[in-house]
Write a structure and sequence with these properties.
By secondary structure, the chain is α+β, with helices and mostly antiparallel strands. Helices cover about 30% and strands about 40% of the residues. Strands 1, 2, 3, 4, 5, 6 and 7 form a seven-stranded antiparallel β-sheet that branches.
């Protein structure tokens, strides 16, 4: 599978999940996670994901100090999981805010894309890994039982690592 197809497969899993946990590092080295909503309408060739955060949470300031982040997407109902590593930064791009802004964001930022409390976080993906278990639950159980009985590993679904430039 070429890079374009892998990036598309990754986006298809992310767009179906929409919510993620963004983990970042505090100044003391401890890790902290926040639930966020992915605002993208597509995953462009730049490999960036976008999120709105409140300036009052100081998350943007922490990301400016250390932008190394991990995004975790989990959709147990679809048996899909995605882990994204990248670099986050706060971008001051009113055109991008207007493009991404939606009704759900208005609940958090009532003054719209120009809300002074709203920051736009851009995460440039460096690499991602995903697991997409395509078998139904019964077949999964049969494969796991067979693997346990034979001492082998079950072969289920699709597992890929995706690199971005």
């Amino acid at each position: 599978m070429n890079d374009t197809n892998q990036h598309e497969a990754l986006w298809n899993l992310i767009k179906e999940t929409r919510f993620c946990m963004l983990a970042h590092r505090h100044a003391d080295g401890s890790l902290h996670s926040h639930p966020l909503t992915t605002q993208n309408k597509e995953l462009g060739s730049d490999g960036c994901l976008y999120f709105f955060v409140a300036r009052s949470t100081e998350m943007g300031q922490r990301l400016q100090q250390d932008g190394n982040v991990n995004l975790s997407y989990a959709n147990p109902g679809q048996d899909t999981w995605v882990s994204v590593s990248g670099n986050a930064r706060v971008v001051d791009d009113i055109a991008k805010k207007k493009y991404l802004f939606n009704t759900a964001a208005k609940a958090w930022f009532p003054n719209g894309p120009e809300d002074p409390n709203m920051e736009l976080v851009e995460v440039r993906i460096s690499e991602a890994e995903y697991w997409n278990v395509k078998e139904n639950k019964l077949l999964q159980m049969i494969k796991m039982g067979t693997a346990a009985a034979t001492g082998s590993r079950p072969e289920m679904g699709e597992h890929k690592e995706v690199r971005f430039n």
